[in-house]
């Protein structure tokens, strides 16, 4: 197995899963975004995105899908759920919600607050998508209250998928608006040895190490009508 990885990008999900599951693998850390700073990466992955993961003849680009592949194709059921488990619907929903509902608006806010050239930054876009993200946390707020993990009372790749979304939101500067139960959940995930080992891989490549959020969002109580 080989993973192309950018520090604190979506490829964190895959690296974290590889560490938790104890696989032997090769990791190549590249600067973010690689399609700008390492153009020869386009010869490897024409999308120019990370993660990029290969396992024999298998090549994959989607972080949560790779985590699911590791569970199902490599026999790691302790990190997933079988289709006959009562929490299977929740498990699938969290896997898909982690990117489509949670990571997407945070990535937009990050892009237009810091990653674009100054003349292309859009404060109103940042505000709108930050509010969107915080509004979409309502499902997690309710679900995680009184639970340590999302499904089946144990750690699964659903926690990796959603945990990265929260980790990125913290980088962007939205963690101060998390509910107490979401804050505690993120702290539990970050305390895991697998996450710590993941974060120890080339931290000097962190593209956000000098990033300071340039925006604020209204308190969550005022965001209940957010779209």
From TrEMBL:
Residues 204-227 are annotated as: Disordered. Residues 84-208 form the GST C-terminal domain. Residues 1-78 form the GST N-terminal domain. GO terms for molecular function: transferase activity. It comes from Hwanghaeella grinnelliae. The keyword Transferase applies. This is Glutathione S-transferase family protein. InterPro entries: Glutathione-S-Trfase_C-like, Glutathione-S-Trfase_C_sf, Glutathione_S-Trfase, Glutathione_S-Trfase_N, Thioredoxin-like_sf. CDD domains: GST_N_GTT1_like. It comes from the Bacteria. Keywords: Transferase. Residues 217-227 have a biased composition (Basic and acidic residues).
